[in-house]
Amino acid sequence: MPTCLFIRGAPGTGKNTVARLLERDLKWPRLWVHHFDAIYRIIGEYKCPSLTDKLIRDVASHLMERQRDLMIVRPSRQTWGMDCIKNIATVFKFNFVPVQLTASYDNLVTRVTRRWTESPFRLTTKEALDEYLGSRPEQSFDGEHVINTDDLTPEEVAARVKELL
Q: Which of 18, 30, 31, 65 has the highest count of CB atoms within 10 angstroms of its CB?
C-alpha cells in the first residue's frame, strides 16, 4: 500500500530539514509549502491558507492517482487541511501517516532566527514567529505521531519517522 506522510509543526521544528533527509533516503517526492513561492509572488501574498490547501490537495491527488508515495510538509496549526489529504488518501487507498514535530519555544526562536532564507516567505524573526504562534490555536489530529525535536539531530528525527512507516 503506498504511503502519504504528512509532516507538520511550527516554523523551526525541523520539518523541511527532516523531509529532505527522508526524500534522499526514501526517494519520495517532497511537497513543501514553499514550493509555491512563485504563485505567492504573483498574487502578492503568502498568508492564504485556503489557496495553499487547494494547491497541496491538487498536487497530492495527482501523485496519489499515479500511486506514488509522497511527503507533504506544512506548518499548519489547524487540521482541516490534513483531514482533506487524509480523505484523498483513503480514496486512493494510501496509508496516511500524520506526524507533528514540536520543539520548545526557546529552540523555535533560536532556529528561526539563525536559518538562511531560501524563501522570502519563511519566518526569520522572533516577532514573525510570535505572530504565527499567536494567530491560531494548535489543534490535535487523531492518530498523529508527535516527535519533540529539542534533543534530537535531524537524522534521529528522520529515523523515528521511518520507524512509523
A: 18
- Give me the DSSP letters along 35-77: GGHHHHHHHT-S--HHHHHHHHHHHHHHHHHTT--EEEEE--S
The CATH number corresponding to 3-164 among 3.40.50.300, 3.40.50.620, 2.60.120.620, 3.30.365.10 equals 3.40.50.300
Cell of 28: 519520495
CA distances to 39, 48, 152, 165 from 51, rounded to whole Å, are 10, 6, 33, 29
- 46-78, pLDDT tens digit by residue? 888 889 889 999 999 999 999 999 999 988 878
DSSP class of residue 5 equals: E
- What local confidence, expressed as pLDDT, does residue 77 receive? 79
Degrees, nearest 5: CA angle 16-4-17:
10
* Distances 64 to 14, 18, 70, 90 between C-alpha atoms, Å: 25, 22, 8, 10
Q: Cα–Cα distance between 93 and 102 in angstroms, integer? A: 29
